[in-house]
Amino acid sequence: MDAHGNAVACTETIFTGFGSHLVVEKYGFALNNTLGGFTRVGGEPNVMNLLQSDGNLPGPGKRPLASMTPTIVLDGKTGRVDVVAGASGGPRIILATFQALEGVLRDNLSAADALARPRFYHQWQPDVLSLEKELMADAELVAALRARGHDVKPIGAIGKAHLIRRHPSGRGWDAACDPRDGSTPAGY
After folding, report:
1. Helix, strand, coil percentages in the chain from 3-state DSSP, rounded to 5
2. What is the pTM of this model?
């Protein structure tokens, strides 16, 4: 956000831990490994456990799948920026971003509270509902989900989101970084 109300939501990817494991020596950064967004072998899950079709095999003119979800929410009446959000975490990015936005837009939580809220994740195949530890600790919730036929399993962090929201007073901003990654919002 800048002083004039302009916003940018920027997401980039390295993909796996250190991307391609190749570093541009002159500049000191790692090259990404977005080739992992393609199907390597039809019918076999990729490194993120996603099962993709042969239609996603690499080829000329194709682009790898990506879950990047940089999001800017505008006020419907004034057109001003109300929220800027995004996340990292491979296929978990979309749900991490959505659940953070839901916290501020629907439940009117502060940015920090929305990001700290425990998350859940489901990716279709495998047919597993993954819950972060705080949700797994709720025995009643887990029992109710299993009674509905869900295969419920624990998972570590579901994405790492960052969010800036217009302060509810209309003056200033409320920014937070996901407590799952230990970073801090900054501005100048």
Report:
1. 20, 20, 60
2. 0.84
Question: Is residue 130 within 8 Å of residue 116, measured between CB atoms?
Answer: no
pLDDT digits (tens, 9 = 90+) for 101-152: 999 999 999 999 999 999 999 988 789 999 999 999 999 999 999 999 999 9
Listed in sequence order, the residues at least 6 apart from 96 whose beta carbon sits closer than 8 Å to its beta carbon are 87, 89, 119, 158, 159, 160, 161, 178
H-helix or E-strand spanning residue 73: strand 71-74
Pick from 9, 34, 8: which is nearest to 20 by CA?
34
Output the six-digit token pair for 41: 């072998």
Instruction: Tell me the DSSP string of the chain.
Output: --TTS----------STTTTS-EETTTTEE---GGGGS-SSTTS--TT-----GGGS--TT---------EEEE-TTT--EEEEEEEESGGGHHHHHHHHHHHHHTS---HHHHHHS--EE--SSS--EEE-HHHHT-HHHHHHHHHTT--EEE-S---EEEEEEE-TTSSSEEEEE-TTTT------
Residue 34, amino acid? T
